[in-house]
Each structure stands twice: as structure tokens, then as C-alpha cells.
Design a protein that fits this description.
single chain, flat, Rossmann fold, 2 domains, about 40% helix, about 375 residues, alpha/beta, 10 strands
Length: about 375
């Protein structure tokens, strides 16, 4: 009889210990999730603050001019039929007359994810807002990193279809870094500046606006087993310049085929480079000059030799950087991994628009607090 009681007691103790262990495990998981959520919220808030820039630096002249801008009578995106899209109570007001707002669908998707939606006026620059007066509050797709004139520009995810279209595919890149071809590749159009310069003109490396022209003139016509550079479209050029650059054109390559290459060159044109986001997300390594413009991913947060391999704006050191990566594969694999991790928050369009909604909510709250909206 005593033996049975002893056995029963041990079983109960074991069950209690098992239950206690399970309870502790569940509590640990819950605490870990809360900690992860708090960390994610903190990171998201930090991201929102960076998008807002110095909106908190308020002065009377800025409020007055912004109000004047918001009182303009020209509303967009109704400038052209192809741009028109119903935005309900929200009025988009452009700052510069030469710009057209064609991102109505993106604005709508951002508005749909806002926790509290109401009517308000939004002063916008649809392209790079480099010419927006620094004393006017504006939202835009991109802004200059270095220019003080852009310190009042708040970034929103616009033209998402073009810039983020291939990011999910790049994140599923099946080829590892070692399996890719050890070649630096670039395809693009004649956007940007300096295309009218003569072929033998020595463009100083500090002239950042000439980077794309420098890349094409330096490497497109050369036979190299390590570098494959070519134009696919001739745009924004006179007939004379089109004839000049036609011999440098090459066959267009799909993004899927470009992922076969180990090194992907990214260079700004009129705005941020269109291929930058999917190139960062892939298992390849991005070669680019330090960025001068930024969008919703905040390219200013990218660090040379951590997220990308830096090259000069005249690309005179391109061969040397390729040779270095060939001889130091582990360094470049770490760069590729860091760049992929950088792009994970932008893996889906839903995530991107939710982030845009949080930025816009903070922007609207600040504008209301100072009496602008």
C-alpha cells in the first residue's frame, strides 16, 4: 500500500514539473514575441522619424508659405487622363507646374492602410524634390541626400510598381554568390546629365551627376571578360546625340538573367537607380558610387563595404574593385547578405504601403499640430 502511494506521488510531481516547464516555455515565447514586437516598433518609429527629417524644426515663414502652397487651385492627378485616379477627400497639390503627379494608385493604397482617414490637402513633388524650397513642407517619392533644400521633404512609397516589382523574385534568388558568373553587368538608358560632352572629355570624379555617362563612355565600347556594360534605350537626347550613342547599344537582358551575374552595377540617372532595390535583395553584390538621392528605403542608410562595393563616379576603379572581390569572396558574400537583410522589410508591397501609411500619419499629425492642415 505504501509503495502505491509513493509511486502516485512521483507521477504527480513529474506532471507538475512538466506543466511548470511548459508554462515557463510559453511565457518565454510570449516575452520573446513582445520584445521582438517592441524592437520592430522602435525600428519602425526610427524609420518614420528619418523619413520626416526636420519637420519638427518649425518657423512662421515655413508655415505661411506651406499654407499658400496648399491654397493653390490646381489639383492633381487630374492633369492627364492616364494619371487620373479618384482619391476621395484628399487633394494632391503640386509645387512645380512642370511636374505631373501620376502616382494616384500608390497614394490610394497608402490611404487605405491609414488607421484614421479623413480629408486633407497634400503638397507633393512627384519626382525628385531637389528644387522644392526648404521652407515648404512637401511629400515626395525621392529627395536629395546632401542638399539642404530637401530637409523639409517627407518620403512616401511612390512608383512602387516600377521600383519594387522584382524585389520578391530577387529575394528568392536560387543561385548562391559562388555559383554566379564573376562579371560586372549593367544595362540602362541615357538618363541623367552630361551626355552632350565629347567622348574624350575628362569629367572630374566629383561631378556626381555625370556618373551614368561616365560608366557608358568608359566601359561600353571596350571588350572585357569581366565587365559587360551597354545601353538599351536612348532617351532625352537630340538626334545628333542619339546617332553618337547608337553604337554603344546592346541587347536588353531580363532581370532573371541578370541575376546570373555576381556583380551588378547600379548608377543613378534622373533619379535613384531603378535596379538598385532588386539588386540589393539578390545574392549578387552591388557596385555603385555613393548614392546622392534616396527613396522610401532610405538609401542614405546604405554603408560602403557593408551593403555595397563603392566605386568612383568616373568608374576608373571598376576593374580594381572587381579584382578585389574575386580575391576576397568571403567579404563580398557578407556584403551581399547584409544588403539582402536590408531589403527584407520591403519584401511585399503590403509592407511597403503600411510603412508609407505610418509615415503619412505622422506627417499629417505634425501638420495639424502646427495648424497647416
Amino acid at each position: 500500500m505504501k509503495r502505491k502511494i509513493k509511486t502516485f506521488s512521483l507521477r504527480r510531481i513529474r506532471k507538475c514539473l512538466t506543466g511548470l516547464c511548459l508554462t515557463l516555455f510559453v511565457l518565454r515565447c510570449v516575452c520573446a514575441k513582445r520584445s521582438e514586437k517592441n524592437r520592430a516598433d522602435a525600428e519602425a518609429q526610427s524609420f518614420v522619424d528619418k523619413c520626416l527629417l526636420d519637420v519638427r524644426a518649425i518657423n512662421k515663414s515655413r508655415i505661411q508659405v506651406t499654407r499658400q502652397g496648399l491654397c493653390q487651385t490646381v489639383h492633381f492627378p487630374f492633369a492627364e487622363k492616364r494619371c487620373s485616379h479618384s482619391l476621395g477627400q484628399v487633394k494632391l497639390l503640386r509645387w512645380e507646374k512642370r511636374h505631373l503627379v501620376c502616382y494616384g494608385r500608390d497614394y490610394t493604397r497608402i490611404f487605405q492602410r491609414m488607421e484614421s482617414f479623413r480629408g486633407f490637402n497634400l503638397l507633393v513633388c512627384d519626382q525628385d524634390c531637389i528644387h522644392s524650397p526648404r521652407h515648404v513642407f512637401t511629400v515626395a517619392k525621392s529627395r536629395s541626400i546632401e542638399s539642404p533644400e530637401n530637409q523639409t521633404v517627407t518620403l512616401l512609397p511612390l512608383n512602387v510598381g516600377r521600383h519594387f516589382k522584382h524585389v520578391p523574385m530577387a529575394l528568392r534568388d536560387r543561385l548562391s554568390y559562388d555559383e554566379k558568373l564573376p562579371v560586372a553587368i549593367w544595362r540602362g538608358s541615357t538618363t541623367g546629365a552630361c551626355w552632350g560632352l565629347s567622348a574624350d572629355a575628362k569629367v572630374d570624379a566629383t561631378r556626381k551627376e555625370c556618373a551614368r555617362r561616365n560608366l557608358v563612355t568608359a566601359w561600353s565600347g571596350k571588350q572585357s571578360g569581366k565587365i559587360d556594360v551597354g545601353l538599351t534605350k536612348l532617351v532625352q537626347l537630340s538626334r545628333e546625340l542619339k546617332n553618337k550613342y547608337t553604337p554603344l547599344m546592346k541587347k536588353e537582358i531580363s532581370v532573371q538573367d541578370m541575376l546570373l551575374y555576381r556583380y551588378i552595377i547600379s548608377v543613378e540617372g534622373n533619379d535613384v537607380a531603378t535596379n538598385l532595390k532588386w539588386a540589393l535583395a539578390s545574392n549578387s553584390v552591388v557596385f555603385m558610387p555613393p548614392p546622392t538621392r534616396e527613396t522610401i528605403i532610405l538609401e542614405s542608410s546604405l554603408r560602403p563595404w557593408i551593403h555595397y562595393v563603392p566605386v568612383l563616379h568616373d568608374f576608373s576603379d571598376l576593374t580594381m574593385k572587381i579584382e578585389y572581390c574575386d580575391n576576397n569572396p568571403l567579404v563580398c558574400q557578407n556584403i551581399s547578405s547584409a544588403a539582402t537583410s536590408f531589403m527584407l522589410p520591403f519584401a511585399t508591397r503590403s509592407n511597403i504601403f503600411i510603412l508609407g501609411a505610418r509615415v503619412l500619419e505622422a506627417y499629417v499629425a505634425m501638420m495639424e499640430s502646427i495648424g497647416v492642415l
